[in-house]
Amino acid sequence: MRSTRHSPPRNPSVRIIPVLGLLAALLLAIGGPLAPRATAAADPTARAVRIMPLGDSITGSPGCWRAVLWNRLQSSGYTDIDFVGTLGPQGCGQPHDGDNEGHGGELVTNVADQNLLPGRLAATLPDIVVMHFGTNDVWSAIAPDRILAAYSKLVEQMRASNPDMKILVAQLIPMNPGSCTACAQRVVDLNARIPDWARTTSTDRSPVTVVDQWTGFSTATDTYDGVHPNASGDDKIAARWYPALTALLDTGTPGDPGDPDDPGDPGDPGGGQPSCSASFRAPSVWQGGYQGEVTVTNTSTSPVSGWTVTVAPADGARLTQIWGGTLTTTTDGTAAVTNEAWNGTLAPGASATFGFIASAPATAGAPSATVTCTAHTASS
């Protein structure tokens, strides 16, 4: 197990903190850890990083992706974290920290207009906010401009609570309820606007990172009613949050000043060379093979213009087909996957995915692979 880095709070009124073991099969289904992290010595002055899941019923009623995400974080060594919110756990059938701010039926525009968030922030003092919010606004035919204005107001309130707030904002999962034939396109329209909004809203001190929860999510197979995620949907949502959230945890707690004499410290705004991380999951397994997915995340504060991921499958498996990248395979089965032209450029905190089919011996165990990422700049 490992601990994220902490610096003692400089001001007791400003809390600075960002975001149990499951069965191996469940960890695999959502892209479980490939190897345990090294244990770090506990810092007696450090306190847990506070992470607020913020949204509506997709986040809180019951919002079981939170349980899946919590257990994956715990099992991969991120133990000095605390999910926070004024609402408590609502089931989900597995131990987890269920505190959250997912209020069923809420509109993000109402939360902004009625100034509901400041009191919730004051009660919980988060350092990272994980926000999937706006589904009810889309259902209510509220225009993207109004929704994004509400996002901006909430971000202002988050920064008033904690100037070092780190914010993950979802491009919403698809929705296709029988009572709203226009909702599917409305989600597409809103999601298309979120990246530009985030770029103009993000700051070095308080970055806003967009997490694509829409791509690869099916209302037919990943929801039980065209809107709310089922178990498959929970796994997919948790898998998308995980790399973006761990990228924040790995670069230090919010407010960590880093080493001012080291321009390569990834915690220093504007410093460091481009870098990336890769995470593996196997969403589908069958006799003699499986489908794999790798998520590549820009973990630096500099843009990445391209990436190469090395995939070393376990138990003699070999990649046979790939999409979202260009494949080169060595004789030992290790594969090098380089980005396509359309998914190589990643802003700080942004992610891209590629998928593959692997063949495996009949005697192979559960799918696993060691994945490493190398970032490229325009000149490399």
Automatic annotation (TrEMBL):
SMART domains: CBD_II. Gene3D superfamilies: 2.60.40.290, SGNH hydrolase (3.40.50.1110). Keywords: Carbohydrate metabolism, Glycosidase, Hydrolase, Polysaccharide degradation, Signal. Coiled coil: none annotated. It comes from the Bacteria. Residues 269-376 form the CBM2 domain. This is Cellulose-binding protein. It comes from Streptomyces acidicola.
